[in-house]
């Protein structure tokens, strides 16, 4: 592939990666419907609100937390949604704090991860270069933590009381203490563009997809320097196998899933999944890996051992994020459907 072609594809990928959603008001009305693909996975869908971005499941509270943000700065329409994972109905809607009374701008939320150990939910506030902490019990805003440049994603290490955020803007991974909310560590890889994050809960090692460098950044508590592991073209999201020995990246520029042997530091398999592969999650029960392909408008289920797609599931247009919990995958899209042009959430009962 020529340098010019790679530059064009990566520019397009970055534009999609940083998209902030549409411009309509929030609503909690929901209409669910189900469809069953031939291969066995069941998809249930519901309209939630405009501007859906990511979601994260709380096993402690049996809640799906979802973020929504609409438009470009000053962003005045953003919310943290508490969703019933069984019915996909919104239980509660929480509005982030106002940052500019003159414009009505709020601390808009984008990335999200739950901390069930401390009963909190963490968000990235991309436009404000910060992360925030909310109470899972009542949605109360507990803290805003600055200096995470273009904060994109966040992951919680409950075992080590640590929360990691990716700073896309300056190639930095920032760790916070999940009890005190104080910054613990800051790791910068010059020239990198960290986006998606994954965590090895046993070792405390965090992995970041480096969109601009076609690699994974590995930060281990036992290593003095980050380790850089090559992967596919335009990796924007990363997940780990159950044993932590394999990483999977959604390669947005290539439209592929890369299977990476972390011991060898090399890609072992590349699986075409669909245009605009944007988010990846691993189902540790079945061993399957799911990829949300934003441009293709679907989710592919991959058997990484066979290196093959076993299902292609229709969701709404522009699926934006996928997460897996207890044999279910939850996908949020930017489909803007119906009279109110709402985005949708989808629950996928993963077939085996």
- Major sheet: order of its strands? 1-2-31-30-29
Termini separation: 37 Å
**In percent terms, what proportion of residues is strand?**
over 45%
| Rg for CA atoms | 18 Å
Low-confidence stretches: 1-9, 11-39
Specify the structural class. mainly beta
The portion of residues assigned to helices is under 10%
How would a crystallographer describe the biggest sheet?
Answer: 5 strands, antiparallel
Oligomeric state of the chains present here: single chain
The overall pLDDT average reads 91
How many E strands? 31
| Dominant shape | globular
Number of helices: 1
Could you characterize what this model shows?
There is one protein chain. The chain has one helix spanning 3-17, and strands at residues 32-35, 42-49, 52-58, 63-70, 77-83, 90-94, 98-100, 105-106, 112-115, 120-125, 130-135, 141-146, 151-157, 162-167, 172-177, 183-188, 194-200, 205-210, 215-219, 227-230, 235-240, 246-251, 256-261, 266-272, 277-282, 289-293, 298-303, 308-314, 319-325, 328-333, 343-349. Helices cover 4% and strands 52% of the residues. The strands form 8 sheets. It has a 5-stranded antiparallel sheet, with no helix packed on it. The chain has 1 helix and 31 strands. The radius of gyration is 18 Å and the shape is globular. With 352 residues, it is mostly beta strands. Mean pLDDT is 91; it is low at 1-9 and 11-39. Strand 19 (215-219) and strand 20 form a beta hairpin.
